[in-house]
Write a structure and sequence with these properties.
Elements: E1 9-13, E2 18-22, E3 34-37, E4 44-50, E5 59-64, E6 69-73, E7 85-88, E8 95-101, E9 110-115, E10 120-125, E11 134-139, E12 146-152, E13 161-166, E14 171-175, E15 187-190, E16 197-203, E17 212-217, E18 222-226, E19 238-241, E20 248-254, E21 263-268, E22 273-279, E23 285-292
Antiparallel strand pairs: 1-2, 2-3, 4-5, 5-6, 6-7, 8-9, 9-10, 10-11, 12-13, 13-14, 14-15, 16-17, 17-18, 18-19, 20-21, 21-22, 22-23
InterPro entries: FG-GAP (IPR013517), Integrin_alpha_N (IPR028994)
Protein name: VCBS repeat-containing protein
Keywords: Signal
Length: 305
């Protein structure tokens, strides 16, 4: 955030109604937290970091679940930020996930928000003069409670598509994109009765150069894999059980053991650990391993780097 070539950390403080910035020293340690308010009762649920106004400075966008809005903090490039600029997501929408991508092919990043209570996702397109005024919503189904999203080109048309985990309807939704920033009606794929998918990630797990989907299912304590056919459609879900007490809350994809095959990492709020499924490169997984996070950790999200 301060252009010193050292990585920094941004965190959404749900109960504190703020975001926190930890500037890194480059040796694994960080400066004390600098706090920016997201508003009384805002309950920030998730944030993303990117250059949202093309000034080569890192900005922050946050989904404020309690205030029904998205807040944008534009960075000055010295580790400090502007006050929050707000964009409403609608009364009672309760946004709980946020992502960015260039959805209309204008070389400007747009914002994607999942509104948990409204059962929709919202695309905020950036305009050259005044950002994020063009707003379009897409239904994810009645009582779908979308909880997580991923952006990827899953049908190889060079346009970003949206994958959303609908925890209320036990499915994932696929919305195929076009180069003008619009999306097709959702196509849904079941993740199993009572699965409550809470997190989604993409990767090529069977080395066929086609993107597949990995899902963390909080209701059935397992990981689901759907294999992509390269045209925007997917196979039925293949399930890998991890433990009946784990309650997965977040999923990531990476090659953790440097064998050139993608693996899956899951953080579990129920058992306070991280669980790794090691990939075989053919769409199957082996040698799962868990790592403790400590008593009472209640881990909710994870990232890699």
């Amino acid at each position: 955030f301060n252009n010193d070539s050292f990585l920094d950390i941004a965190v959404a403080n749900n109960l504190g109604n703020n975001i926190g910035i930890f500037l890194g020293y480059g040796n694994g340690t960080f400066a004390p937290q600098i706090v920016y308010s997201t508003g009384n009762g805002s309950i920030p649920a998730m944030l993303i970091v990117s250059d949202l106004n093309n000034d080569n400075r890192v900005d922050i966008a946050v989904a404020n679940n309690g205030a029904n809005n998205v807040g944008v903090f534009f960075g000055y490039g010295d580790g400090s930020f502007t006050d929050q600029i707000l964009f409403s997501t609608g009364s009672g929408s309760q946004p709980d996930a946020i992502a960015v991508g260039d959805f209309n092919n204008d070389n400007r990043l747009d914002i994607l928000v999942a509104n948990n209570l409204d059962g929709n996702i919202m695309v905020l397109l950036r305009d050259s003069s005044q950002p994020f005024l063009s707003l379009t919503t897409y239904s994810t189904g009645n009582h779908s409670h979308p909880q997580s999203m991923a952006i990827a080109d899953i049908n190889k048309d060079y346009c970003p598509d949206i994958i959303v985990a609908n925890s209320g309807n036990d499915n994932i939704g696929i919305l195929l994109g076009s180069d003008n920033g619009t999306f097709m009606t959702q196509a849904a794929y079941t993740t199993g009765n009572g699965s409550q998918p809470c997190s989604v990630a993409v990767g090529d797990f069977n080395n066929d150069s086609l993107l597949d989907i990995a899902i963390a299912n909080a209701g059935t304590n397992n990981v689901g894999i759907l294999f992509g056919f390269g045209n925007g459609t997917f196979s039925t879900v293949m399930v890998y059980s991890i433990d009946n007490s784990l309650t997965p809350s977040s999923i990531v994809v990476a090659d953790f053991n440097k064998d050139n095959y993608l693996d899956v990492g899951v953080v579990n709020s129920g058992s306070q650990n991280v669980f790794i499924l090691f990939g075989n490169g053919n769409g199957t997984f082996r040698n799962s391993q868990s790592y403790s996070l400590g008593y009472g950790s209640l881990a909710y999200s994870m990232t890699i780097g």
